[in-house]
Amino acid sequence: MTWQVMLETILNNTIMYATPLIFAALGGVISERAGVVNIALEGFMIVGAFAAAVTTIVFGEDLGWGAAAPWIGLLAAFLLGVIFSLPHAVASIHFRADQVVSGVALNFLAAGFSIFMVKNLFDGAAQTTTIQFPFEKWKIAFLYDVPVIGKGILFAYPTSYLAAIAVVLVYIFLYRTAFGLRLRALGEHPHAAASVGINVYLYRYVAVMLAGGLAGLGGAGMSIAVSSNFQHNTIAGHGFMALAAMIFGKWHPIGAMWAALFFGFANALAANGQVLGLTQYVPAEFLNMLPFILTILALAGVVGKASAPAADGKPYVKGER
Of the candidates 10, 103, 229, 317, which lies 20 to 30 Å from 151 by C-alpha distance? Predict the structure, then answer.
């Protein structure tokens, strides 16, 4: 295998595996910048992957929408992610429940709900049928044929380009709009924000719902671009990797994107270790563990120090200081 082919394989797979993490990490950034801890990213990704796979199968095969079906699947993933985020929003914002416990509960609920629905919709099978109209990679001339490096380096799915656009939009939203400024203020000092007329509850609800929708898009990227189906291990901890990417990226959309690419690189090595010949030097089991080892290191704060927003995870009680 030439170095160009190896570089193409690694880079393409890095982008492919990083894309779902970018979406979910962006959702985590929005939620936690507003002061709501969101452990439920894993659950939102699960229901998003489920919704996207089922919707794409129904619209693509049963209704004959063909190549338009995965786009409907993306919309379904976003909407179900938003809907599924509401219990977490109500519990953590309105009833001031422990936000970590609420998120963990939703992760379990998402896993059980999705598999239950799959078995009911697909005659008792534990996974959906193979998606016949998944996303195809887009060939963009100036990105596909890179001078010196070669062809096929940036040959990505539409979801990858959407993820890059989402990073820019979330950055503008948080740092270049009045709504984003108010939302970030809630994560630092919600009582000060409330004193100038900001509706803390409303803004936090919006933040959690956006987090659910974006993480749902991340799950959709896994099912209709990577695996071409949905089963119990389609997400397999990627929501927690996205959470680690958010922390590693210091609760900033650009930082979260780079961290997601870093974890995507680890996933690419694990998935293609044998093809790249890495298993001659490193046991395959270690390569498979690598993404999760890096996740643990990031969450433990070993790789770089990060400070969360001051009010992150602290329930807001109107009138109290």
Answer: 229
Pairing of strands 150-151, 145-146: antiparallel
Residues 198-214: tens digit of each pLDDT: 999 999 999 999 999 99
The helix/strand/coil state of 254 is: helix
Neighbours of 302 (CB within 10 A): 10
DSSP 151: E
Q: Which of 195, 213, 190 is nearest to 88 (CA)?
A: 213
Query: What type of residue sits at position 45?
Result: M
Answer whether 213's CB lies under 8 Å from 27's CB: yes
The pair of three-digit structure tokens given for residue 306, joined into one six-digit string: 């990060």
* Entry pTM: 0.92
Q: How far is residue 179's CA from residue 159's CA, in Å, rounded to a whole number?
A: 26
Strand partners, 145: 151
- 98/91 Cα distance (integer angstroms): 8
Which phi and psi angles does 156 have, rounded to 5°? -120, 165
**Nearest CA among 149, 156, 137, 155 for reference residue 7:** 149
With a CB cutoff of 8 Å and minimum separation 6, the contacts of 213 are 27, 78, 79, 81, 82, 85
Output the CA–CA distances (angstroms, integers) from residue 303 to 257, 291, 298, in the order listed. 16, 14, 5
Query: Rounded to an integer, what distance in angstroms lies between the CA atom of residue 173 and that of residue 157?
Result: 25
